[in-house]
Structure formats: C-alpha cells, structure tokens
C-alpha cells in the first residue's frame, strides 16, 4: 500500500513536470511550432517522453485555454499566447507570424468590437501572403 502511494506521487510529479516543460517551451517561442516540432524539442530535455504524451498535453493546453492553435497547411500549430491577435501565414515557407491588434487600427470591426451581428469576445484572423524573406 505504501509503495503504491509513493508510485502514484511520483507519477503525478512526473506528469506535472512534463506538462510544465512543454508549456515553458511553448511560452518561450514565437514560432508557433507544430506538434511534431514541440515533440522533437521536448524530447531533447525528456528523452523518454512519448509522442502520445506530448500530443495529449498539447490537446489539454488547448482545452484549458493555455494555448491556441492556428491551422496552416492542414496542420495545427501551437501558440501559448492566447490573447486576441491575428496571424500572418507565409504561403511559401509556412512560417506563422503574430500580427497584433495595434497593427490593425484601421479595421473598424476590431476597434469597436461591435459588428451588426453581435458583440465580439475574441477573434481569429489569418492573413496569407509572402513573408519578407520569401518576397
Ligand atoms: Zn516565407
Ligand atoms: Zn500567435
């Protein structure tokens, strides 16, 4: 019985620190990594972590509002910045860049958050184009 308790405590500790390492990585980058990219980076710190664990954690972050996803080329990319901000997706290199609200001050819908259909709580806007490097 005592052994079991110890095991479950270790299990909780391990799960928490894995989760924290994945979230810390996501918070430290602005590159909006895909699940595969997150897995390849996290694996360097946690060699024993499985792909399934990383994917499950990413799903949980999204469910709990700790991260948001942006779809590019049919793939989910993760962003730990959950504030309302638009994204620019390069059609050539598939990189995702943040476009913040103050860059869209001329957009009246974003500015007063009240289009005719109702009140906006948050938004997801993707701009598609060619980034400075690819242009
Ligand atoms: Zn590009
Ligand atoms: Zn973003």
Automatic annotation (TrEMBL):
Gene3D superfamilies for the chain: 3.30.1490.190, Winged helix-like DNA-binding domain superfamily/Winged helix DNA-binding domain
Record text on cofactor binding: Binds 1 zinc ion per subunit.
Entry's Gene Ontology BP terms: negative regulation of DNA-templated transcription; regulation of secondary metabolite biosynthetic process
Binding site for Zn(2+): 90, 93, 131, 134
Pfam family for this entry, one: FUR
Keyword entries, A-Z: DNA-binding, Metal-binding, Repressor, Transcription, Transcription regulation, Zinc
Cofactor(s) required, per the database record: Zn(2+)
CDD domains named among the record's database cross-references: Fur_like (cd07153)
Domain of life assignment: Bacteria
Annotated GO MF terms: DNA-binding transcription factor activity; transcription cis-regulatory region binding; zinc ion binding
UniProt-listed InterPro entries: FUR, Fur_C, WH-like_DNA-bd_sf, WH_DNA-bd_sf
Record-stated family: Belongs to the Fur family.
PANTHER family: FERRIC UPTAKE REGULATION PROTEIN, ZINC UPTAKE REGULATION PROTEIN
Protein name per UniProt: Transcriptional repressor
Lineage of producing organism: Bacteria, Candidatus Nealsoniibacteriota
């Amino acid at each position: 019985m005592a052994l079991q308790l110890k095991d479950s405590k270790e299990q909780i500790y391990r799960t928490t620190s894995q989760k924290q390492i994945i979230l810390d990585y996501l918070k430290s980058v602005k590159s909006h990594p895909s699940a595969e990219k997150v897995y390849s980076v996290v694996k360097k710190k946690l060699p024993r972590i499985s792909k399934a664990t990383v994917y499950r954690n990413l799903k949980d972050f999204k469910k709990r509002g700790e991260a948001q996803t942006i779809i590019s080329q049919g793939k989910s990319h993760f962003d730990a910045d959950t504030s309302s901000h638009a994204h620019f997706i390069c059609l050539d290199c598939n990189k995702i860049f943040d476009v913040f609200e103050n860059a869209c001050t001329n957009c009246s819908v974003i500015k007063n958050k009240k289009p005719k259909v109702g009140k906006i709580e948050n938004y997801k806007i993707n701009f598609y184009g060619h980034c400075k490097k690819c242009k």
